UniProtKB/TrEMBL annotation:
Domain of life: Bacteria
Domain RNA polymerase sigma-70 region residues, every copy: 22-85
GO biological process, one term: DNA-templated transcription initiation
PANTHER family the record matches: RNA POLYMERASE ECF-TYPE SIGMA FACTO, RNA POLYMERASE SIGMA-70 FACTOR ECF SUBFAMILY
Domain RNA polymerase sigma factor 70 region 4 type: 114-162
Segment forming the signal sequence: none
Family annotation (CDD domains): Sigma70_r4
Protein name according to UniProt: RNA polymerase sigma-70 factor (ECF subfamily)
Molecular function as annotated in GO: DNA binding; sigma factor activity
UniProt record similarity statement: Belongs to the sigma-70 factor family. ECF subfamily.
Keyword field: Sigma factor, Transcription, Transcription regulation
């Protein structure tokens, strides 16, 4: 069965087609959930909620763009839902923002370590960092998705980068002291 046929069957609430769509996309969407969740269990809950929404709204998918892109947007919005109402964001004056760059040498630092330290960021910094730096949304889009100002998005990104830079520098210092 083609993807278009699966989508059409899902629009008719066909459980077998829904299962196939789930099997095709669950692992990618779960990785996305992990990025935006505090822990594994919350990521599992977010994935479940995302698929419920996906299958409820599948009739709104008009085959414009990819199904995967449409499902990713729903999944990110589902994962962000729990943060919108609890006020995890600080409002910061844009004049206080400084641009921070983080130098990473792939030979010294593993992807696993980077993912681990990103996961350790406080919610407000992790969410903005993931949306902006990893998923390519603009500060305007991040602000709209999280119900914050673009200035808050920029300041939270700068703070996330600063924390990551400090952790990477500490990690490098530990590596260097071990090799001496």
């Amino acid at each position: 069965m083609s993807l278009e046929q699966l989508i059409e069957q899902c629009k008719k609430n066909d459980a077998k087609a829904q299962s196939q769509i789930y099997k095709l996309h669950a692992s990618k969407l779960f990785s996305l959930c992990l990025k935006y969740s505090r822990n594994y269990a919350e990521a599992e809950d977010n994935l479940q909620d995302a698929f419920i929404t996906i299958f409820k709204k599948i009739t709104q998918f008009k085959n414009k763009g990819s199904l995967e892109g449409w499902m990713k947007r729903i999944t990110i919005n589902t994962a962000l839902q729990c943060y919108r109402s609890v006020g995890v964001f600080d409002i910061i004056n844009e004049d206080q923002i400084e641009d921070i760059t983080v130098e990473i040498n792939e030979d010294e630092i593993s992807i696993d370590f980077l993912l681990e330290i990103i996961q350790e960021l406080p919610d407000r910094y992790r969410l903005v960092f993931n949306l902006y730096a990893l998923d390519g949304y603009s500060h305007k889009e991040v602000a709209e998705m999280l119900n914050i100002s673009t200035g808050t998005s920029k300041s939270n990104l700068a703070r996330a980068r600063l924390i990551l830079k400090e952790k990477i520098e500490k990690y490098k210092a530990n590596l260097n002291s071990q090799t001496l």
